[in-house]
Amino acid sequence: MREIVLPRMHYATVVGHVVRKLTGHFIDGETVERKAFGMLAGRQRGATLHVAGAFPLLVNQRQDPDRRAEMDEVVNGYAIPSETPNAQRGWIAHPAELLAIERACDEVDLVVFGNYHTHRVAWPHDPRRDTCTQLDRVLADGCGQWTFIVSAVDLHQPSIRAFYEADNDAEASIRLT
Fold first, then answer.
1. How far apart are CA 53 and CA 87, in angstroms?
2. What distance in Å separates the CA atoms of residue 85 and residue 81, rounded to the nearest whole number?
3. CA 20 from centroid of its chain's CA atoms
């Protein structure tokens, strides 16, 4: 892929989700935390992916006792120290949400091809936080999806970049339409 076409309405869904979560506005049934994660779906035409659906996820199972230890091990092994404690980093999607997204996409012939998440804390060596971290790469390894990083360091000027399997050397340009 060389290019991902992102219609402004789906861009608005993603950025709206990020801004809402980071400003502390939560909806019923949503995990109360200052980070956003979601899925993107669409169709491929030649070397271009066209986003046709953005699906904000509500439930983070990161703190579920049956899943926490595995994520703790990965985060503690690969995360760069940050303002956010390691125990609060990472996202484990609820299987029911993912299944509902897959079913909705199947009904209209879309393919889930990517996921998005926020980076909100500037680091001295990475002030925009718009690229993938080593932790992102480890978590995305072998997933076959595009990782969209939503830089929310400045909520008034968010940006989105896309990397295949979180590989910073495998970036596709994003064209807003």
1. 31
2. 8
3. 15
Burial of 6 (0-12, 13-18, 19+ CB in 10 A): buried
105 contacts 39 by C-beta, under 8 angstroms: no
Tokens read off for 58: 């509500």
Residue 53: which pLDDT band, with cuts at 50, 70 and 90?
A: very high
Smallest Cα–Cα separation from 6: which of 123, 136, 150, 170?
150
- Token pair, residue 4, equals 């991902």
CA–CA gap between residue 43 and residue 105 (Å, rounded): 10
Mean pLDDT across the stretch 146-162? 96
What is the sign, positive or negative, of the torsion defined by CA atoms of 153, 138, 146, 62?
negative
Residue 24, CA distances (Å) to 18, 34, 132, 149, 150 in order: 10, 7, 24, 20, 17
Question: What does the angle CA 58 – CA 135 – CA 11 come to, to the nearest 5 degrees?
Answer: 45
CB neighbours of 24 closer than 8 A, spacing ≥ 6?
Answer: 34
